[in-house]
Amino acid sequence: MTGKLDLDPVLVRRARVLARQVGRPIVKLARQHTTVSVERATLRLAGLSGADPDGTPWVNRLADAVRADVGLEHGLALPVWDALVRGEGEDLLVLAQKAAAGSVRFRLPDGRDATRAQAAARRQVGAGIRRIDAQRKARERLIRTMGDAPSQPWIYLIVATGDIYEDIPQAQAAARAGADVIAVIRSTGQSLLDYVPEGATREGFAGTYATQENFRLMRAALDETSRELGRYVRLTNYASGLCMPEIAALAGLERLDMMLNDSMYGILFRDINPIRTFVDQRFSRQVHARAGIVINTGEDNYLTTADAVEAAHTVTTSQLLNEFFAKEAGLADWQLGLGHAFEIDPDVPSSLRLELAHALLARELFPKAPLKWMPPTKHMTGDVFRGYLLDGFFNLVGALTGQGILLVGMMTEAVVTPWLSDRDLALQNVRYVLHAAGDLQADFRPLPGSFIPARAQQVLGESIDLLERILEHDRGLLDAIADGTFGLMRRPPDGGRGLDGVFRKAPAYVNPATDLLEGTA
Amino acid sequence: MTGKLDLDPVLVRRARVLARQVGRPIVKLARQHTTVSVERATLRLAGLSGADPDGTPWVNRLADAVRADVGLEHGLALPVWDALVRGEGEDLLVLAQKAAAGSVRFRLPDGRDATRAQAAARRQVGAGIRRIDAQRKARERLIRTMGDAPSQPWIYLIVATGDIYEDIPQAQAAARAGADVIAVIRSTGQSLLDYVPEGATREGFAGTYATQENFRLMRAALDETSRELGRYVRLTNYASGLCMPEIAALAGLERLDMMLNDSMYGILFRDINPIRTFVDQRFSRQVHARAGIVINTGEDNYLTTADAVEAAHTVTTSQLLNEFFAKEAGLADWQLGLGHAFEIDPDVPSSLRLELAHALLARELFPKAPLKWMPPTKHMTGDVFRGYLLDGFFNLVGALTGQGILLVGMMTEAVVTPWLSDRDLALQNVRYVLHAAGDLQADFRPLPGSFIPARAQQVLGESIDLLERILEHDRGLLDAIADGTFGLMRRPPDGGRGLDGVFRKAPAYVNPATDLLEGTA
Amino acid sequence: MSLLRPYGDTTGDGMVQVSFTLPMAHSKVAEGAAAQLAEKMGIQPALVVHAKPMGPDFTFFVVYGPVRHLVDPSLVEVVERDYPLLTAKEVNARVKSTLRRRLVVVGACIGTDAHTVGIDAILNIKGFAGEKGLEYYRELKVVNLGAQVSVPDLVGHAIEEKADAVLVSQVVTQRDAHLLNTREMSAAFREAFPPARRPVLIVGGPRFDESMAAELGVDRVFARGTTPVDVASFLVHRLEKRAS
Amino acid sequence: MSLLRPYGDTTGDGMVQVSFTLPMAHSKVAEGAAAQLAEKMGIQPALVVHAKPMGPDFTFFVVYGPVRHLVDPSLVEVVERDYPLLTAKEVNARVKSTLRRRLVVVGACIGTDAHTVGIDAILNIKGFAGEKGLEYYRELKVVNLGAQVSVPDLVGHAIEEKADAVLVSQVVTQRDAHLLNTREMSAAFREAFPPARRPVLIVGGPRFDESMAAELGVDRVFARGTTPVDVASFLVHRLEKRAS
Ligand code: B12
Ligand code: B12
Ligand SMILES: Cc1ncc(COP(=O)(O)O)c(C=O)c1O
Ligand SMILES: Cc1ncc(COP(=O)(O)O)c(C=O)c1O
């Protein structure tokens, strides 16, 4: 695959060094803080689930009670398991119910009490981690026994009815028609909820709520279909928004296979506080690493607000950063579904050549990562015939540049959330293009020095410049984000939602989940 | 452009030598014969037009009368102008009317009478040839003053309403939307008529009758639109069927710019007698050569009845023969719109690579010919979305292989003759693909020895083998056609329509049109 | 089966897609006119998602929306195959026992239609969709007259060959060419033959409505996707009925 | 203008294309059901040119045919621009002379909608389709609250900023989210302000029906293709009317 662009290895190395320099202070920041959602995720790993009659999850009720009593800068583990050890509740659920009723007070244990609480917490959280490990093994076994996606790229399709019971047959139909990966799109607004809804849901807007039960139902349905088809069909959801860590934990527990998880998407596109996001992101990636989940990053989104040619280098820059953060969190190369997209305005001359250059650059910069290749969205219109054609050329670029995960474009992109028939037509489009192109990739080798390699080198160069400029800022990446560097969105470090859920860790902070995930336990 | 396939120049030369060997006996046959239509074409060049009240053209009435009196093996010129010189009619029209009424008898003049008749004929036919020359100059002047098609490939669109007055606005709309060439498709059945209908017509089936008046009306309308657009829009029709020579003459007189004109199409697809076809074809090509008309050959049709992969070499073979016949008739390289088509079954693996190979082969075998690239038809279905996509990939192959004339595919191919909106959508498809690909052709150079060049070389090899096998037959090409070599159609030399209109020329045969066109006059 | 509505992405949502051209310049009024048409078609609300001017006189529209009509599959009348599908062997055997001679089939594209691929798919040995054509059947004698055969010629050949069945293909449908030609053909056969001796008349082509046999004066209409065995089985069925 | 029919390739042919899915397995009956639906939509004859099974429970269809309905453009009601388009200079001058202060515009995407590109196209200096946005107008003060703003927050900001106009964008339309949110918004403003002091309410987004302003309780609805100057001109027009 590699070597079509003649990238200078010195420059490639330089780009990675710069990304590390930009990323390191952020990792430090992430290590220094915890968030309400990281703490609630820990409770979820320990097995606490369900919600009160108003729908507020018990993890929220419990965390809120603890926070009210002792704050969260020490984490939840010590006060919660201290209370359990003290016999304030026979289990987490009872404790949460009592906490919600105001009939239990939390304290910060120390000495022997603290050691005991910590040990109890670790035991219980450890069980959750073991369940994640078991799910990972189950996935590996299922793939071994029933077979994997037949070829690369994996065909990735979304369902988005808002109703899990409509989503399921649609997902099964899509899998039968050839999808290797099903993504259940989330309801608008879920990312801003500071809790994870409970149960099976039927009332999302333009997407279905991510809940543990919805995860379970869909995974079970796809297991059934996988068996029917003799290939394991993967399931994807979104570890993003204010509850990113909890959703990551639920994904691990319910054997989701891939998760949308970007280091900056929430900041830029949901106006979530940057520090909150970086902390949540690190934890959620540690969970994904453990769970064997492939992450999908969100660089494609930048090109919906910024111009795909002008801002091509911001995609590359963000990919380098996402790679650094991902590896720091323990993810392996094969888990890095780095995002990019076919979003060049079709009116730009030579858009296809430019797309080929950008897509090849991503391919050759990250040769071992699966890469998530996103279809045109911004320049889709109500002309569904034209849309079908653009999607075909998107598929072609995917085939010619060895993308790993092909997110299938819909001709109705500018009209409605996808219909059943849109998906079927879209899959037919993918099948035709991949089948017709065959191994055209092997014949296709741009002339050295021609337009395509030259453009790729230019984008890499601009990306290096940008990383250098980011380093020149006082607060590095945080200042760059505040400046509108990515997707033209300006997000200052002290703005955005969820900042009040961020806590600087106290010296006595304990979180058995982090310890276990980081292998420091 | 050339040199992407590493074709062996020795083999290419060999292929041409073989084509000449196959073609030469056919040319000889053509020189030895005349046909009713060649003779009527001569009358048309001499200015005879119009029809009797039943719609039978005067050229037919006159030719039939002469034939009844003296046969046609001496041609029409001597008996007709002899009668005129004798004062049997003041002009051709009156003579034809009297002939139709049975009030004139024809004879074969000799000696001084013959010389006089011949001179009179030559004068009058010469005026027609001069009008053709004037039209050619007019075309050149219009192109000079108002501009030519802006780039290659020329965008070629069909109209096919059956009604010249619906065709005209549709053609103008297509030109405004970007068409460089408009083809008016003919009514089914016209090719089997042994006369050219007269006047403006509104009742064709799936096409509009080719008549002198329809030619004139459409050319005038396009001249108007050309002026409006500042580029000369070309007009195409069909010199094929039983009246091929007459239609060629009318095309020259009315300044059509391109004509469908194949050496074997009528034989194979209309069951017209092979000898009739070869004689008519040679004459019509001489007219086209003189008129500066680009011919379009019909190899694409083979792939509608035969398989596009198995029969790929029959296309190449036919192109070589069409080239030979065309040059023999005086056509220059720039007038050779050799046909081929994107007809590989989309279910065949690597269809796109195969198409690229076939299209490049045609391009490199005939580097100076414009090449007519035909869209998918046979594997189009009622799924218009899929159809739109296939047409997009057809356009891409056209762009990547430097085709000269791009016949625009319609998503409704399998449904209806094209709607106004089909053409508009189809043009949008072409524009997108050409614009997006830009000069991708320059970057795209298949690796030497890879699939694409290997396949092209294989097809060339098979084509040479086929030419060799044709030569082994007693009667060469005639036998091969009888065998079903092309398009799987078996057409024996003594079968088919129109054989009774073929005459072996007598020693005293005279045709001033041929003399003038061959420059022997 | 109960009443149905089209399905976009939720049961009962009734969603459809429509496209058409109106002969008027693009404007807000034209978009409103497009919505008006869609509403007359039963789409409410009609979402005009695309409007493309095509020169000064035409505009192309794409419309999405829910259609109010219900579909009642129980009211659908289709020409279901009312005879058993036979193997080639069975066809041969039954022709032999019924007729005691080969069954003669004459086929052609009539009128100005020159699309032979369809009728060849039914008649030629090569066949269609992996199935051999009627020529392959030992007990069938196939005379394929090819394309652009005139109706009088066809009748003449049918008489000459003593045809048991005449198979006609019609692919061009513009201005209802296929219907006109078929009616002309069946009328000619009715004129040339007494009812009892008229060959079985079969017409086929991709755009025929299979329920129109009576209206067209033929015994059977075959459309898109027909295979040789469909036709052979029908022929046997019909001849056995005649013989009995 | 006279009555029109859709145009395929001949005046008056009425040709349209339709596609939809029926929730039933593919069969001849399903094809008949598709034709039935098309006929109910007024297409006669309905040509079912494509039928694609999608799993065991659904079939996708493409249908062509002539529709019998006539379109009467004279009955179309459109929201035509009933105010003159102004230049930026004119807008500034007229705001100055009417209000004697800057006109305050508060903009937001409300509800859970996070699609800011549309409202940014109207508000940001960068603008849309080569036209500068409202921020560029000297006499306009623009407060862009961004995405996912709740209605109470929006009302609060409008009060605080003494907004003359409130611009709201809604892009997500699934389950009529845009309509629900707009109604909630306009109700909140009616509650919070006496009629005379209520800011001008404008809502926009690609899938709105511009004729629904009254129904939604807003002063104006802008759809697909709106440019900043449309909005600025409307604002001036409306404020001058109020002032007079
Ligand atoms: C191949 C082809 C040609 C070839 C024909 C070669 C040949 N020897 O047949 C060539 C290139 C010569 C040709 C020419 C023209 N064609 Co043409 N052609 C096609 C094409 C691409 C495919 C048709 C085909 O072969 N289908 C495959 C066969 C197997 O399918 P089928 O015919 O439907 O047959 C099946 C069934 O219908 C049924 N069946 C058919 N006949 C019969 C008969 C019986 C007795 C039975 C039992 C069953 C049966 O069984 C078959 C197997 O399932 C179609 C477009 C398309 N993709 O459909 C246009 C198409 C049919 N052609 C069309 C036209 C207009 C023409 C021309 C008239 C254009 C012109 N003016 O020059 C010419 C002239 C032809 C003429 N005089 O008739 C139009 C017809 C429009 C319409 N609906 O009226 C089409 C639809 C293209 C278009 N959109 O414009 N064509
Ligand atoms: C860009 C985009 C995004 C970006 C948004 C970035 C951003 N900061 O805005 C990202 C990637 C974040 C995104 C996310 C999602 N999106 Co989105 N997205 C789009 C996309 C591709 C383009 C929209 C756009 O920017 N258009 C360009 C602008 C200029 O046009 P416009 O909005 O129509 O605005 C013009 C006019 O309408 C008008 N106008 C608009 N607002 C206003 C306001 C006023 C006051 C005035 C006067 C005028 C006006 O003026 C503008 C200029 O002419 C569309 C698909 C498409 N091609 O249309 C999908 C689309 C809108 N998204 C959709 C969905 C479902 C989502 C998600 C909910 C999916 C999910 N569940 O995760 C998420 C979540 C977003 C959320 N919570 O709302 C759906 C909506 C379906 C529906 N009809 O209900 C669409 C149609 C895609 C699809 N087919 O599924 N999306
Ligand atoms: C990386 C990433 N995260 C999350 C989302 C989904 O948005 P939300 O978190 O608002 O559901 C997207 C949308 O495409 C995305 O690309
Ligand atoms: C070379 C050639 N001649 C003629 C025709 C038209 O057929 P007809 O002569 O029957 O009008 C075609 C059809 O595409 C063609 O390719």
What does this molecule look like?
The complex is a heterotetramer, with 2 copies of chain A (521 residues) and 2 copies of chain C (244 residues). With 521 residues, chain A is of the alpha/beta class. Chain A has helices at residues 9-32, 36-45, 58-70, 77-85, 92-101, 111-146, 164-176, 212-229, 244-253, 265-270, 274-291, 299-305, 312-328, 351-365, 384-400, 420-437, 440-443, 451-472, 476-482, 512-518, and strands at residues 33-35, 154-159, 181-184, 234-238, 258-260, 294-296, 336-337, 339-341, 372-374, 405-407, 502-504. Chain A has a 9-stranded parallel β-sheet with strand order 7-6-5-4-3-2-10-9-8, with helices on both faces. Chain A has a two-stranded antiparallel ribbon with strand order 1-11. Chain A starts with 8 loop residues before the first helix and ends with a helix. The model of chain A has no long low-confidence stretch (mean pLDDT 96). Chain C is α/β, with parallel strands linked by helices and 244 residues long. Chain C folds into 2 domains: 1-77, D-lysine 5,6-aminomutase beta subunit KamE, N-terminal domain (Defensin A-like), CATH 3.30.30.60; 88-243, 3-Layer(aba) Sandwich (Rossmann fold). Chain C has helices spanning 28-40, 88-99, 117-123, 151-161, 177-192, 213-216, 228-243, and strands at 15-22, 47-54, 58-66, 103-109, 140-144, 165-169, 200-204, 220-222. In chain C, β6, α5 (177-192) and β7 form a beta-alpha-beta unit. In chain C, α2 (88-99) runs parallel beside α7. The mean pLDDT of chain C is 94. Chains C and D meet through β1 and α1 of C and β1 and α1 of D. Bound molecules: cobalamin (B12) (2 copies) and pyridoxal-5'-phosphate (2 copies).
